Amino acid sequence: MSRRAATLGLAFLLVVPTTTAAQAGTAELLQQARQLYERLEIERALPILRQVVSPEWPLEVTNAQRVEAYKYLGAALVLKSKRDSAVLYFRAALERDAFADLDPAQFTPAQLGAFAAARRLTFSVGARPIPETRLDPRTGRLSVTVVTTHAALVRATVRALGGTEYVVLYDGPNDGAREIGWNGLGPDGQLASPGRYDLTVVGRSQLTAQTDSLRMYLDLQHDVEPLEDTLPALGAGELLPERHAESTAGNDLLKTLGVAVGALAVGSLLGNDRLGTGREGPIMAGAATVGGIAAFSYRRAHRAIPANVALNDARRAARDAANSGVRMRNADRVARTMLLITPASAPVVRP
Amino acid sequence: MSASVRMLFPLLLLPAIASAQGVELSGVVTVTHGDHRVDAGLGVERATGLVAGGAARLRFRGIALVLSGESGHLTAVPGSGGIDRDVAQVGAAAQFTPLSWLVLESGVTVRSFGTVVARQRWTLIRAGAEARVPLSGETFWALGRAHLLPLVRVNGLPNAATAFDAGTGLGYQRGRLLFEVAYTLERCDFPSQGSTRRSEQLGTLAFRGGVQLRLH
Protein backbone atom coordinates (compact mmCIF):
# COMPACT_ATOMS: atom_id res chain seq x y z
CA MET A 1 0.00 0.00 0.00
CA SER A 2 2.73 2.37 0.93
CA ARG A 3 4.67 1.47 -2.23
CA ARG A 4 1.65 2.10 -4.43
CA ALA A 5 1.04 5.40 -2.75
CA ALA A 6 4.64 6.39 -3.25
CA THR A 7 4.41 5.55 -6.98
CA LEU A 8 1.28 7.64 -7.39
CA GLY A 9 2.91 10.49 -5.51
CA LEU A 10 5.97 10.42 -7.77
CA ALA A 11 3.80 10.36 -10.89
CA PHE A 12 1.88 13.33 -9.57
CA LEU A 13 5.05 15.25 -8.94
CA LEU A 14 6.23 14.57 -12.52
CA VAL A 15 3.00 15.43 -14.25
CA VAL A 16 1.91 18.49 -12.35
CA PRO A 17 4.70 20.90 -13.42
CA THR A 18 4.08 20.13 -17.14
CA THR A 19 0.37 20.60 -16.82
CA THR A 20 0.87 23.76 -14.88
CA ALA A 21 3.23 25.17 -17.47
CA ALA A 22 0.79 24.38 -20.29
CA GLN A 23 -2.07 25.92 -18.44
CA ALA A 24 -0.11 28.99 -17.58
CA GLY A 25 -0.81 30.20 -21.07
CA THR A 26 1.35 31.69 -23.74
CA ALA A 27 1.17 35.18 -22.29
CA GLU A 28 2.37 34.11 -18.88
CA LEU A 29 5.11 32.03 -20.41
CA LEU A 30 6.28 34.96 -22.48
CA GLN A 31 6.20 37.14 -19.40
CA GLN A 32 8.26 34.56 -17.57
CA ALA A 33 10.80 34.41 -20.42
CA ARG A 34 11.09 38.20 -20.50
CA GLN A 35 11.77 38.30 -16.77
CA LEU A 36 14.46 35.61 -17.10
CA TYR A 37 15.98 37.50 -20.04
CA GLU A 38 16.03 40.73 -18.07
CA ARG A 39 17.77 38.91 -15.22
CA LEU A 40 20.22 37.66 -17.88
CA GLU A 41 19.23 34.08 -17.17
CA ILE A 42 19.50 33.43 -20.86
CA GLU A 43 19.91 29.70 -20.59
CA ARG A 44 16.60 29.43 -18.77
CA ALA A 45 14.83 31.91 -21.02
CA LEU A 46 15.80 30.27 -24.31
CA PRO A 47 13.91 26.98 -23.82
CA ILE A 48 10.76 28.80 -22.88
CA LEU A 49 10.97 31.06 -25.93
CA ARG A 50 11.68 28.11 -28.20
CA GLN A 51 8.71 26.37 -26.64
CA VAL A 52 6.43 29.27 -27.59
CA VAL A 53 7.51 29.32 -31.25
CA SER A 54 7.54 25.52 -31.51
CA PRO A 55 4.88 24.04 -33.79
CA GLU A 56 4.22 21.55 -31.07
CA TRP A 57 3.20 24.16 -28.54
CA PRO A 58 -0.39 23.19 -27.79
CA LEU A 59 -1.78 26.52 -26.78
CA GLU A 60 -2.82 29.32 -29.01
CA VAL A 61 -0.11 31.80 -29.96
CA THR A 62 -1.06 35.09 -31.47
CA ASN A 63 1.04 36.66 -34.19
CA ALA A 64 2.13 39.40 -31.82
CA GLN A 65 3.18 36.82 -29.22
CA ARG A 66 5.09 34.85 -31.81
CA VAL A 67 6.83 38.00 -33.05
CA GLU A 68 7.71 38.90 -29.47
CA ALA A 69 9.14 35.46 -28.86
CA TYR A 70 11.26 35.65 -32.03
CA LYS A 71 12.55 39.10 -31.00
CA TYR A 72 13.64 37.86 -27.56
CA LEU A 73 15.10 34.70 -29.05
CA GLY A 74 17.20 36.84 -31.39
CA ALA A 75 18.20 39.18 -28.62
CA ALA A 76 19.16 36.28 -26.33
CA LEU A 77 21.23 34.62 -29.00
CA VAL A 78 23.10 37.87 -29.66
CA LEU A 79 24.03 37.87 -26.00
CA LYS A 80 25.25 34.32 -26.45
CA SER A 81 27.33 35.54 -29.43
CA LYS A 82 25.27 33.55 -31.88
CA ARG A 83 24.69 36.45 -34.24
CA ASP A 84 23.73 34.46 -37.35
CA SER A 85 21.08 32.52 -35.45
CA ALA A 86 19.92 35.74 -33.91
CA VAL A 87 19.52 37.32 -37.31
CA LEU A 88 17.45 34.35 -38.43
CA TYR A 89 15.05 34.82 -35.52
CA PHE A 90 14.89 38.57 -36.11
CA ARG A 91 14.04 37.88 -39.77
CA ALA A 92 11.32 35.51 -38.65
CA ALA A 93 9.92 38.31 -36.52
CA LEU A 94 10.08 40.80 -39.40
CA GLU A 95 8.47 38.38 -41.84
CA ARG A 96 5.51 38.10 -39.52
CA ASP A 97 5.33 41.74 -38.61
CA ALA A 98 7.04 44.36 -40.72
CA PHE A 99 6.43 46.85 -37.88
CA ALA A 100 8.56 44.79 -35.51
CA ASP A 101 11.39 46.77 -33.96
CA LEU A 102 13.77 46.82 -31.03
CA ASP A 103 13.66 49.58 -28.48
CA PRO A 104 17.17 51.16 -28.37
CA ALA A 105 16.63 51.88 -24.67
CA GLN A 106 16.15 48.21 -23.87
CA PHE A 107 18.50 46.44 -26.25
CA THR A 108 22.22 46.61 -26.82
CA PRO A 109 23.87 48.08 -29.91
CA ALA A 110 24.90 44.59 -30.92
CA GLN A 111 21.31 43.46 -30.78
CA LEU A 112 20.20 46.52 -32.70
CA GLY A 113 22.89 45.86 -35.27
CA ALA A 114 21.77 42.29 -35.70
CA PHE A 115 18.20 43.46 -36.06
CA ALA A 116 19.23 46.02 -38.69
CA ALA A 117 21.02 43.26 -40.58
CA ALA A 118 17.86 41.20 -40.42
CA ARG A 119 15.97 44.19 -41.82
CA ARG A 120 18.30 44.44 -44.76
CA LEU A 121 17.95 40.73 -45.51
CA THR A 122 14.22 40.55 -45.09
CA PHE A 123 11.70 42.35 -47.20
CA SER A 124 8.19 42.70 -45.90
CA VAL A 125 5.33 45.14 -46.28
CA GLY A 126 2.95 45.83 -43.46
CA ALA A 127 -0.03 47.98 -42.64
CA ARG A 128 -1.71 48.87 -39.42
CA PRO A 129 -5.30 47.73 -39.04
CA ILE A 130 -7.81 50.40 -39.98
CA PRO A 131 -10.23 51.21 -37.19
CA GLU A 132 -13.87 51.94 -37.87
CA THR A 133 -13.79 55.51 -39.19
CA ARG A 134 -16.38 58.22 -39.76
CA LEU A 135 -14.92 60.50 -42.37
CA ASP A 136 -15.97 63.90 -43.67
CA PRO A 137 -14.60 63.78 -47.21
CA ARG A 138 -14.51 67.58 -47.43
CA THR A 139 -12.04 67.96 -44.62
CA GLY A 140 -10.83 64.56 -43.49
CA ARG A 141 -8.73 61.72 -44.81
CA LEU A 142 -8.60 58.05 -44.02
CA SER A 143 -5.13 57.54 -42.65
CA VAL A 144 -3.33 54.22 -43.15
CA THR A 145 0.12 53.46 -41.82
CA VAL A 146 2.21 51.24 -44.06
CA VAL A 147 5.73 50.09 -43.51
CA THR A 148 8.53 48.37 -45.35
CA THR A 149 11.38 46.68 -43.59
CA HIS A 150 13.92 48.52 -45.69
CA ALA A 151 14.18 50.87 -48.66
CA ALA A 152 11.63 49.99 -51.31
CA LEU A 153 9.32 51.36 -53.93
CA VAL A 154 5.77 51.26 -52.66
CA ARG A 155 2.51 51.60 -54.51
CA ALA A 156 -0.71 51.79 -52.54
CA THR A 157 -4.05 51.73 -54.38
CA VAL A 158 -7.70 51.49 -53.49
CA ARG A 159 -10.50 50.33 -55.76
CA ALA A 160 -14.04 49.09 -55.59
CA LEU A 161 -14.23 45.35 -55.37
CA GLY A 162 -14.67 44.01 -58.89
CA GLY A 163 -13.86 47.37 -60.41
CA THR A 164 -11.02 48.08 -62.79
CA GLU A 165 -10.45 51.74 -61.97
CA TYR A 166 -8.40 52.52 -58.92
CA VAL A 167 -7.09 55.44 -56.96
CA VAL A 168 -3.36 55.60 -56.31
CA LEU A 169 -2.80 56.64 -52.72
CA TYR A 170 0.98 56.54 -52.88
CA ASP A 171 3.54 55.56 -55.45
CA GLY A 172 7.14 56.19 -54.56
CA PRO A 173 10.12 55.31 -52.43
CA ASN A 174 9.73 54.34 -48.81
CA ASP A 175 11.87 53.15 -45.93
CA GLY A 176 10.16 52.38 -42.67
CA ALA A 177 6.70 53.57 -41.69
CA ARG A 178 4.66 56.02 -43.75
CA GLU A 179 1.22 57.55 -43.37
CA ILE A 180 -0.85 57.46 -46.52
CA GLY A 181 -4.31 58.96 -46.82
CA TRP A 182 -7.49 58.53 -48.82
CA ASN A 183 -9.92 61.43 -49.18
CA GLY A 184 -12.89 59.18 -50.01
CA LEU A 185 -13.03 60.10 -53.69
CA GLY A 186 -13.19 57.52 -56.44
CA PRO A 187 -11.17 57.40 -59.64
CA ASP A 188 -13.64 59.80 -61.28
CA GLY A 189 -13.10 62.41 -58.61
CA GLN A 190 -16.60 61.88 -57.23
CA LEU A 191 -17.46 60.62 -53.80
CA ALA A 192 -16.73 56.91 -53.71
CA SER A 193 -19.88 54.83 -54.01
CA PRO A 194 -20.99 52.68 -51.13
CA GLY A 195 -19.63 49.15 -51.27
CA ARG A 196 -16.62 47.03 -50.55
CA TYR A 197 -13.15 48.25 -51.46
CA ASP A 198 -9.75 46.69 -51.37
CA LEU A 199 -6.68 48.61 -50.38
CA THR A 200 -3.60 47.02 -51.85
CA VAL A 201 0.00 47.82 -50.93
CA VAL A 202 2.75 46.44 -53.16
CA GLY A 203 6.41 46.92 -52.31
CA ARG A 204 9.55 46.18 -54.30
CA SER A 205 12.79 46.08 -52.38
CA GLN A 206 15.54 48.39 -53.48
CA LEU A 207 18.14 46.18 -51.79
CA THR A 208 17.05 42.79 -52.98
CA ALA A 209 14.88 41.54 -55.76
CA GLN A 210 12.09 40.73 -53.34
CA THR A 211 8.55 41.97 -53.60
CA ASP A 212 5.78 41.81 -51.07
CA SER A 213 2.20 42.91 -51.01
CA LEU A 214 -0.84 42.94 -48.82
CA ARG A 215 -4.50 43.67 -49.24
CA MET A 216 -7.08 45.03 -46.84
CA TYR A 217 -10.81 45.00 -47.47
CA LEU A 218 -12.94 47.94 -46.41
CA ASP A 219 -16.68 48.44 -46.32
CA LEU A 220 -17.73 51.97 -47.22
CA GLN A 221 -21.15 53.40 -46.47
CA HIS A 222 -22.67 56.83 -47.02
CA ASP A 223 -24.21 58.57 -44.06
CA VAL A 224 -26.47 61.22 -45.56
CA GLU A 225 -29.54 62.99 -44.22
CA PRO A 226 -32.80 61.74 -45.74
CA LEU A 227 -33.50 63.50 -49.02
CA GLU A 228 -36.70 65.39 -49.81
CA ASP A 229 -38.95 64.23 -52.61
CA THR A 230 -39.54 66.62 -55.46
CA LEU A 231 -43.10 67.62 -56.28
CA PRO A 232 -44.71 65.38 -58.88
CA ALA A 233 -45.60 66.68 -62.32
CA LEU A 234 -48.85 68.64 -62.41
CA GLY A 235 -51.73 66.39 -63.31
CA ALA A 236 -54.56 67.17 -65.66
CA GLY A 237 -56.78 68.06 -62.72
CA GLU A 238 -54.33 70.68 -61.51
CA LEU A 239 -54.10 72.57 -64.77
CA LEU A 240 -56.72 74.75 -66.37
CA PRO A 241 -57.71 74.19 -70.00
CA GLU A 242 -55.54 76.34 -72.20
CA ARG A 243 -57.75 76.18 -75.28
CA HIS A 244 -61.45 76.50 -75.86
CA ALA A 245 -63.25 73.45 -77.19
CA GLU A 246 -64.14 73.46 -80.86
CA SER A 247 -67.81 73.74 -79.96
CA THR A 248 -67.27 76.98 -78.05
CA ALA A 249 -67.58 79.24 -81.07
CA GLY A 250 -70.86 77.60 -82.05
CA ASN A 251 -72.18 77.94 -78.53
CA ASP A 252 -71.34 81.64 -78.51
CA LEU A 253 -73.21 82.08 -81.77
CA LEU A 254 -76.24 80.25 -80.41
CA LYS A 255 -76.31 82.45 -77.30
CA THR A 256 -76.20 85.67 -79.26
CA LEU A 257 -78.77 84.41 -81.72
CA GLY A 258 -80.89 83.65 -78.69
CA VAL A 259 -80.58 87.31 -77.71
CA ALA A 260 -81.62 88.32 -81.22
CA VAL A 261 -84.57 85.98 -81.28
CA GLY A 262 -85.52 87.15 -77.79
CA ALA A 263 -85.49 90.79 -78.86
CA LEU A 264 -87.78 90.04 -81.78
CA ALA A 265 -90.01 87.84 -79.66
CA VAL A 266 -90.40 90.48 -76.97
CA GLY A 267 -91.65 92.95 -79.54
CA SER A 268 -93.89 90.61 -81.48
CA LEU A 269 -95.24 88.37 -78.74
CA LEU A 270 -95.36 90.60 -75.69
CA GLY A 271 -96.06 93.97 -77.26
CA ASN A 272 -99.52 95.39 -77.46
CA ASP A 273 -100.97 94.69 -80.90
CA ARG A 274 -102.84 98.00 -80.97
CA LEU A 275 -99.76 99.96 -80.04
CA GLY A 276 -97.25 98.12 -82.16
CA THR A 277 -93.54 98.32 -81.51
CA GLY A 278 -90.72 100.48 -82.69
CA ARG A 279 -87.41 99.67 -84.28
CA GLU A 280 -85.58 99.11 -81.00
CA GLY A 281 -86.23 95.35 -80.98
CA PRO A 282 -85.05 94.73 -84.56
CA ILE A 283 -82.00 96.94 -83.95
CA MET A 284 -81.15 94.88 -80.88
CA ALA A 285 -81.69 91.67 -82.86
CA GLY A 286 -79.44 92.92 -85.63
CA ALA A 287 -76.74 93.99 -83.20
CA ALA A 288 -76.90 90.62 -81.44
CA THR A 289 -76.69 88.76 -84.76
CA VAL A 290 -73.71 90.80 -85.91
CA GLY A 291 -72.09 90.41 -82.50
CA GLY A 292 -72.70 86.68 -82.56
CA ILE A 293 -71.13 86.27 -85.98
CA ALA A 294 -68.17 88.36 -84.86
CA ALA A 295 -67.83 86.30 -81.67
CA PHE A 296 -68.09 83.09 -83.67
CA SER A 297 -65.36 84.17 -86.10
CA TYR A 298 -63.14 85.45 -83.32
CA ARG A 299 -63.42 82.33 -81.25
CA ARG A 300 -62.73 80.10 -84.25
CA ALA A 301 -59.51 81.99 -84.83
CA HIS A 302 -58.53 82.46 -81.20
CA ARG A 303 -59.06 79.33 -79.19
CA ALA A 304 -56.28 79.94 -76.70
CA ILE A 305 -57.20 81.07 -73.21
CA PRO A 306 -54.36 83.44 -72.26
CA ALA A 307 -55.46 83.81 -68.63
CA ASN A 308 -55.40 80.06 -68.12
CA VAL A 309 -52.09 79.76 -69.95
CA ALA A 310 -50.65 82.38 -67.62
CA LEU A 311 -52.08 80.66 -64.54
CA ASN A 312 -50.77 77.28 -65.65
CA ASP A 313 -47.38 78.81 -66.38
CA ALA A 314 -47.40 80.35 -62.92
CA ARG A 315 -48.26 77.00 -61.35
CA ARG A 316 -45.55 75.26 -63.35
CA ALA A 317 -43.08 77.97 -62.40
CA ALA A 318 -44.03 77.63 -58.74
CA ARG A 319 -43.56 73.87 -58.94
CA ASP A 320 -40.24 74.25 -60.73
CA ALA A 321 -39.10 76.75 -58.13
CA ALA A 322 -40.13 74.40 -55.31
CA ASN A 323 -38.34 71.50 -56.97
CA SER A 324 -35.30 73.63 -57.56
CA GLY A 325 -35.24 74.39 -53.85
CA VAL A 326 -35.63 70.71 -53.03
CA ARG A 327 -32.81 69.82 -55.40
CA MET A 328 -30.58 72.48 -53.88
CA ARG A 329 -31.29 71.28 -50.36
CA ASN A 330 -30.73 67.67 -51.43
CA ALA A 331 -27.48 68.61 -53.14
CA ASP A 332 -26.41 70.34 -49.97
CA ARG A 333 -27.22 67.24 -47.95
CA VAL A 334 -25.39 65.03 -50.42
CA ALA A 335 -22.42 67.38 -50.24
CA ARG A 336 -22.41 66.89 -46.49
CA THR A 337 -22.33 63.12 -46.86
CA MET A 338 -20.15 61.39 -44.30
CA LEU A 339 -18.33 58.17 -45.09
CA LEU A 340 -18.45 55.25 -42.70
CA ILE A 341 -15.46 53.02 -43.28
CA THR A 342 -15.21 49.72 -41.51
CA PRO A 343 -12.66 46.95 -41.97
CA ALA A 344 -14.25 44.02 -43.75
CA SER A 345 -11.59 41.38 -43.14
CA ALA A 346 -8.75 40.36 -40.92
CA PRO A 347 -6.25 43.17 -40.58
CA VAL A 348 -4.13 42.06 -43.48
CA VAL A 349 -4.66 39.60 -46.27
CA ARG A 350 -1.56 38.43 -48.04
CA PRO A 351 -2.27 37.32 -51.59
CA MET B 1 -81.76 122.84 -57.44
CA SER B 2 -83.28 121.36 -60.60
CA ALA B 3 -85.34 118.21 -60.65
CA SER B 4 -82.58 116.31 -62.40
CA VAL B 5 -80.00 117.23 -59.79
CA ARG B 6 -82.43 116.29 -57.01
CA MET B 7 -82.91 112.91 -58.61
CA LEU B 8 -79.19 112.28 -59.05
CA PHE B 9 -78.22 113.50 -55.59
CA PRO B 10 -78.48 110.09 -53.89
CA LEU B 11 -76.01 108.73 -56.42
CA LEU B 12 -73.40 111.13 -55.14
CA LEU B 13 -73.58 109.54 -51.70
CA LEU B 14 -72.71 106.06 -52.90
CA PRO B 15 -68.92 106.41 -52.88
CA ALA B 16 -69.05 107.34 -49.21
CA ILE B 17 -71.26 104.35 -48.46
CA ALA B 18 -68.89 102.14 -50.37
CA SER B 19 -65.93 102.90 -48.18
CA ALA B 20 -66.55 99.67 -46.33
CA GLN B 21 -64.25 96.82 -47.24
CA GLY B 22 -65.30 93.99 -49.56
CA VAL B 23 -67.65 96.19 -51.46
CA GLU B 24 -67.97 96.41 -55.21
CA LEU B 25 -69.12 99.69 -56.65
CA SER B 26 -70.02 100.33 -60.24
CA GLY B 27 -71.35 103.37 -61.96
CA VAL B 28 -72.70 103.64 -65.48
CA VAL B 29 -73.88 106.38 -67.75
CA THR B 30 -76.99 105.53 -69.70
CA VAL B 31 -78.17 106.88 -73.02
CA THR B 32 -81.50 105.49 -74.02
CA HIS B 33 -83.65 105.84 -77.06
CA GLY B 34 -87.23 105.65 -75.94
CA ASP B 35 -90.41 105.02 -77.88
CA HIS B 36 -93.47 105.86 -75.79
CA ARG B 37 -96.84 104.77 -77.15
CA VAL B 38 -100.21 105.49 -75.62
CA ASP B 39 -103.66 104.45 -76.69
CA ALA B 40 -106.34 106.15 -74.61
CA GLY B 41 -109.12 105.44 -77.03
CA LEU B 42 -108.25 108.21 -79.44
CA GLY B 43 -105.69 106.35 -81.46
CA VAL B 44 -102.02 105.70 -80.79
CA GLU B 45 -100.04 108.66 -79.60
CA ARG B 46 -96.34 108.18 -80.09
CA ALA B 47 -93.32 110.11 -78.91
CA THR B 48 -89.65 109.22 -79.23
CA GLY B 49 -86.42 110.70 -78.09
CA LEU B 50 -83.29 110.34 -76.05
CA VAL B 51 -83.18 109.92 -72.32
CA ALA B 52 -79.89 110.18 -70.48
CA GLY B 53 -78.92 109.41 -66.95
CA GLY B 54 -76.89 107.15 -64.79
CA ALA B 55 -76.98 104.34 -62.31
CA ALA B 56 -74.87 103.24 -59.45
CA ARG B 57 -74.67 99.75 -58.05
CA LEU B 58 -73.30 98.87 -54.69
CA ARG B 59 -72.66 95.19 -54.17
CA PHE B 60 -71.66 93.36 -51.02
CA ARG B 61 -71.32 89.63 -51.42
CA GLY B 62 -74.48 88.43 -53.15
CA ILE B 63 -76.64 91.43 -52.42
CA ALA B 64 -76.66 94.70 -54.33
CA LEU B 65 -78.43 98.01 -54.23
CA VAL B 66 -79.03 99.88 -57.45
CA LEU B 67 -79.97 103.52 -57.67
CA SER B 68 -80.70 105.12 -61.03
CA GLY B 69 -81.96 108.32 -62.51
CA GLU B 70 -82.72 109.45 -66.03
CA SER B 71 -84.35 112.33 -67.77
CA GLY B 72 -84.96 113.41 -71.33
CA HIS B 73 -87.35 114.74 -73.87
CA LEU B 74 -89.60 112.73 -76.10
CA THR B 75 -90.80 114.37 -79.24
CA ALA B 76 -94.21 113.56 -80.65
CA VAL B 77 -94.05 111.65 -83.89
CA PRO B 78 -95.74 113.74 -86.57
CA GLY B 79 -99.15 112.46 -87.52
CA SER B 80 -99.60 110.42 -84.37
CA GLY B 81 -101.62 113.06 -82.60
CA GLY B 82 -99.40 113.25 -79.55
CA ILE B 83 -97.56 116.11 -77.93
CA ASP B 84 -94.02 116.48 -76.76
CA ARG B 85 -93.24 115.41 -73.25
CA ASP B 86 -90.43 115.52 -70.76
CA VAL B 87 -89.66 112.33 -68.93
CA ALA B 88 -87.71 111.88 -65.75
CA GLN B 89 -87.45 108.91 -63.47
CA VAL B 90 -85.58 107.63 -60.50
CA GLY B 91 -85.41 104.07 -59.37
CA ALA B 92 -84.14 101.95 -56.55
CA ALA B 93 -83.76 98.21 -56.67
CA ALA B 94 -82.40 95.45 -54.53
CA GLN B 95 -80.67 92.55 -56.20
CA PHE B 96 -79.79 89.11 -55.00
CA THR B 97 -77.49 86.79 -56.91
CA PRO B 98 -78.24 83.16 -55.98
CA LEU B 99 -76.29 81.86 -58.95
CA SER B 100 -73.43 83.41 -60.82
CA TRP B 101 -75.59 83.88 -63.90
CA LEU B 102 -78.91 84.75 -62.24
CA VAL B 103 -79.95 87.97 -60.54
CA LEU B 104 -83.25 88.26 -58.71
CA GLU B 105 -84.42 91.84 -58.53
CA SER B 106 -87.13 93.91 -56.94
CA GLY B 107 -87.51 97.66 -56.94
CA VAL B 108 -89.49 100.77 -57.35
CA THR B 109 -89.43 103.42 -60.06
CA VAL B 110 -90.95 106.86 -59.86
CA ARG B 111 -91.50 108.41 -63.24
CA SER B 112 -92.81 111.72 -64.41
CA PHE B 113 -94.23 112.62 -67.81
CA GLY B 114 -94.58 116.36 -68.20
CA THR B 115 -96.36 118.08 -71.05
CA VAL B 116 -97.50 121.59 -71.64
CA VAL B 117 -100.91 120.68 -70.33
CA ALA B 118 -100.23 118.37 -67.39
CA ARG B 119 -97.74 116.37 -65.41
CA GLN B 120 -98.36 112.69 -64.92
CA ARG B 121 -96.65 110.84 -62.12
CA TRP B 122 -96.08 107.11 -62.23
CA THR B 123 -95.06 104.76 -59.47
CA LEU B 124 -94.02 101.30 -60.60
CA ILE B 125 -93.19 98.38 -58.35
CA ARG B 126 -91.35 95.59 -60.13
CA ALA B 127 -90.03 92.13 -59.30
CA GLY B 128 -88.28 89.78 -61.62
CA ALA B 129 -85.05 88.25 -62.71
CA GLU B 130 -82.17 88.78 -65.05
CA ALA B 131 -80.11 86.00 -66.57
CA ARG B 132 -76.51 86.74 -67.58
CA VAL B 133 -75.08 83.94 -69.66
CA PRO B 134 -71.38 84.42 -70.36
CA LEU B 135 -69.93 83.82 -73.75
CA SER B 136 -66.53 82.13 -73.99
CA GLY B 137 -63.77 84.23 -72.56
CA GLU B 138 -66.25 85.59 -70.05
CA THR B 139 -65.87 89.16 -71.24
CA PHE B 140 -69.13 89.13 -73.22
CA TRP B 141 -72.40 87.93 -71.96
CA ALA B 142 -75.92 87.57 -73.23
CA LEU B 143 -78.65 88.77 -71.00
CA GLY B 144 -82.38 88.39 -70.78
CA ARG B 145 -84.64 89.95 -68.23
CA ALA B 146 -88.29 89.93 -67.28
CA HIS B 147 -90.20 91.68 -64.52
CA LEU B 148 -93.73 91.66 -63.36
CA LEU B 149 -95.11 95.04 -62.31
CA PRO B 150 -97.69 94.16 -59.70
CA LEU B 151 -98.34 97.77 -58.84
CA VAL B 152 -98.42 100.58 -61.39
CA ARG B 153 -100.01 103.69 -59.95
CA VAL B 154 -100.60 106.70 -62.16
CA ASN B 155 -102.24 109.86 -60.92
CA GLY B 156 -105.63 110.32 -62.52
CA LEU B 157 -105.84 106.71 -63.58
CA PRO B 158 -106.75 103.44 -61.96
CA ASN B 159 -103.90 101.10 -61.24
CA ALA B 160 -102.72 99.07 -64.20
CA ALA B 161 -104.48 95.77 -64.65
CA THR B 162 -101.58 94.06 -66.37
CA ALA B 163 -98.04 95.29 -66.45
CA PHE B 164 -94.66 93.73 -67.12
CA ASP B 165 -91.43 94.33 -68.88
CA ALA B 166 -89.06 92.07 -70.74
CA GLY B 167 -85.92 92.47 -72.73
CA THR B 168 -82.65 91.09 -74.01
CA GLY B 169 -79.19 92.48 -74.49
CA LEU B 170 -75.47 92.02 -74.71
CA GLY B 171 -72.86 93.03 -72.18
CA TYR B 172 -69.13 93.43 -72.23
CA GLN B 173 -66.60 93.92 -69.50
CA ARG B 174 -62.92 94.58 -69.93
CA GLY B 175 -61.07 95.23 -66.74
CA ARG B 176 -63.05 97.81 -64.86
CA LEU B 177 -64.97 99.00 -67.87
CA LEU B 178 -68.53 97.92 -68.41
CA PHE B 179 -70.64 98.25 -71.54
CA GLU B 180 -74.11 97.06 -72.22
CA VAL B 181 -76.75 97.40 -74.88
CA ALA B 182 -80.23 96.20 -74.02
CA TYR B 183 -83.69 96.34 -75.46
CA THR B 184 -86.61 96.51 -73.05
CA LEU B 185 -90.32 96.68 -73.64
CA GLU B 186 -92.49 97.83 -70.76
CA ARG B 187 -96.20 97.33 -71.20
CA CYS B 188 -99.04 98.54 -69.02
CA ASP B 189 -102.70 97.80 -69.69
CA PHE B 190 -105.20 99.70 -67.58
CA PRO B 191 -108.71 98.59 -66.70
CA SER B 192 -111.46 99.54 -69.06
CA GLN B 193 -113.24 102.75 -68.26
CA GLY B 194 -116.49 102.76 -70.12
CA SER B 195 -115.80 101.77 -73.68
CA THR B 196 -112.19 102.67 -73.66
CA ARG B 197 -109.21 100.80 -72.37
CA ARG B 198 -105.97 102.67 -71.92
CA SER B 199 -102.74 101.00 -72.86
CA GLU B 200 -99.24 102.36 -72.63
CA GLN B 201 -95.99 100.92 -73.84
CA LEU B 202 -92.43 102.15 -73.50
CA GLY B 203 -89.80 100.56 -75.69
CA THR B 204 -86.20 101.45 -74.98
CA LEU B 205 -82.86 100.67 -76.48
CA ALA B 206 -80.32 101.57 -73.82
CA PHE B 207 -76.58 101.96 -74.14
CA ARG B 208 -74.76 101.83 -70.85
CA GLY B 209 -71.11 102.37 -70.14
CA GLY B 210 -69.24 102.77 -66.91
CA VAL B 211 -66.68 101.50 -64.50
CA GLN B 212 -66.61 98.95 -61.74
CA LEU B 213 -64.48 99.43 -58.67
CA ARG B 214 -63.58 96.80 -56.13
CA LEU B 215 -62.99 98.20 -52.68
CA HIS B 216 -61.01 95.72 -50.60
Give an overview of the whole structure.
The complex is a heterodimer of chains A (351) and B (216). In chain A, strands 1, 2, 3, 4, 5, 6 and 7 form a seven-stranded antiparallel β-sheet that branches. Chain A folds into three domains: 22-121, Serine Threonine Protein Phosphatase 5, Tetratricopeptide repeat; 125-224 and 339-343, Immunoglobulin-like (Sandwich), CATH 2.60.40.4070; 236-335, no CATH class. Chain A starts with a helix and ends in an 8-residue tail after the last strand. Chain A is 48% helix and 21% strand. Chain A contains eight helices and seven strands. Chain A has 351 residues and is an alpha+beta fold. Chain A is rod-shaped and about 155 Å long. Chain B is mostly beta strands. Chain B has a single domain, classed as Lipocalin (Beta Barrel), CATH 2.40.128.100. Chain B is 7% helix and 73% strand. Chain B has a ten-stranded antiparallel barrel with strand order 1-2-3-4-5-6-7-8-9-10. In chain B, strand 1 (23-39) and strand 2 form a beta hairpin. Chain B is elongated, with a radius of gyration of 18 Å. The two termini of chain B are 35 Å apart. The chains are: A alpha+beta (351), B mainly beta (216). The A-B interface holds A 244, 248-249, 251-252, 255-256, 258-260, 262-263, 266-267, 270-272, 274-281, 283-284, 287-288, 291, 295, 299, 305 and B 33, 35, 37-39, 44, 48, 133, 135-137, 140, 142-144, 164, 166-170, 181-183, 185, 187, 189, 199-201, 203-205.
